[in-house]
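Budget justification aside, the reviewers requested a transparent look at the raw inputs and outputs of the sequence design task funded under Objective 1. We therefore reproduce one unedited record. The lines immediately below are the structure tokens for a 158-residue chain.
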């Protein structure tokens, strides 16, 4: 089944490619390197996933909830009532921690709540996850007692 899917993907993307590249891919698959690489990547992302979940648990004492995903490389936080994900973004970015306010995932701006943020752990090492989550914790703590005025809509560059 995998070979059939690869052939279909190849045919859909181009007519011809280098024989050397095709041979390298053939060896990569036949020698089992794909399976080894997949297991290696699973172990890397499992460690990152476990670390971010452990750190997210600490945010619960601040009234933050989160969704435990069954897959993927992101988690979603729900901030305490009255707290803005956009405001949290601006606080975190001052300390070189990037989060994405949930509002940016709604193209028409009709989503009323700005209480969600997405955290990605795809390109972050486990020790950086701890540091980043500590910064997020401190930013949330700082904002908890502040009046949360409306701020400009944030749109990421793509």
């Amino acid at each position: 089944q995998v070979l059939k899917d690869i052939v279909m993907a190849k045919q859909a993307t181009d007519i011809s490619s280098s024989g050397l590249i095709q041979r390298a891919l053939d060896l990569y698959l036949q020698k089992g390197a794909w399976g080894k690489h997949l297991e290696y990547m699973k172990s890397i992302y499992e460690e990152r996933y476990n670390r971010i979940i452990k750190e997210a648990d600490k945010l619960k004492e601040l009234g933050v909830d989160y969704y435990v995903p069954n897959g993927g490389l992101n988690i979603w936080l729900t901030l305490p009532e009255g707290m803005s994900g956009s405001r949290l973004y601006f606080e975190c970015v001052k300390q070189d921690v990037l989060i994405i306010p949930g509002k940016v995932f709604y193209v028409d701006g009709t989503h009323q709540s700005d209480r969600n943020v997405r955290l990605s752990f795809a390109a972050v090492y486990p020790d950086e996850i701890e540091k980043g989550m500590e910064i997020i914790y401190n930013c949330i703590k700082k904002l908890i007692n502040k009046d949360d005025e409306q701020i400009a809509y944030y749109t990421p560059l793509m």
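The beta strands are 65-67, 74-78, 100-101, 116-120. The chain has a mean pLDDT of 87. Computational costs for records of this kind are itemized in the attached budget.
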